Automatic annotation (TrEMBL):
The keyword Translocase does not apply. Pfam families: Crystall (PF00030). Keywords: Eye lens protein, Repeat, Signal. It comes from Poecilia reticulata. GO terms for biological process: lens development in camera-type eye; visual perception. GO terms for molecular function: structural constituent of eye lens. Residues 1-20 form the signal peptide. InterPro entries: Beta/Gamma-Crystallin, Beta/gamma_crystallin, G_crystallin-like. This is Beta-crystallin S-1-like. Residues 90-128, 129-171, 177-217, 218-260 form the Beta/gamma crystallin 'Greek key' domain.
Amino acid sequence: MSCGALVFVSTLCWIQRLWAALFRETGVTASEQCDSPGSIFESLIEKSTSHKAKNHVLDFIVLALYKEHTGGGRCNILFSTPNLLISTMEKIIFYEDRNFQGRYHESGNDFSDLHTYVSRCNSIKVLGGFWVVYEKPNYMGHQYVLSPGEYPDYQYWLGINDAVRSCRVVRHVGNMWRMKIWEKPNFEGESVELSDNMPTFHERWQSRDVQSCKVFEGAWIFYEHPNYRGRQYLLEKGEYRRYSEWGGRQPSVGSVRRVKN
């Protein structure tokens, strides 16, 4: 490899690492679509709460301005890298048969109906990002939260059958987690704040019922039974005034787990 090629590859790798750091430190996820470099910077600056993250954003702006000032025009490597990174960060492959055999479908985005591409799903590869797959179309039915890895059989993701009809990227996966739960709907009654996993929920919460909650940081999973068993319910940043808003059939919660890299 020539010296010029080595410099190019090294620069590209450095830029990709810088973008990854920005996404991680600001909470801007790969699934957030940005139409232009300006909108990318605007989103990053808005979410840059730490001094380190702000410095990363400024590094990019300085690089871009320098490139244009020296007559090089727009730096295509610099501005195409976010989209390149986005396309490789989140990726999932569904296979009709076990052990990654048979017809398959690859996705990098939310998908409301997979039945056109695969009639059943017996194995999955998650090549990037965290995903929640659903038993039914339009993000309905049983939920299963998947981390990067290989699942040669539906039992590996605790599935009850080979039905996977829709999928969605899990957003707000980061390094901080904070959630508050209430015993009654609309954030009323007794409450408690959580920041860690709870394999046995009732040890800290007198009642197993959770009627409403607010997720301030990170993504979480409610499990129907203790020790992370039973139905799963993904909760991301936002407010849930009643248990039906996170897809629950009833308000009982047996265990709680953070979605963690």
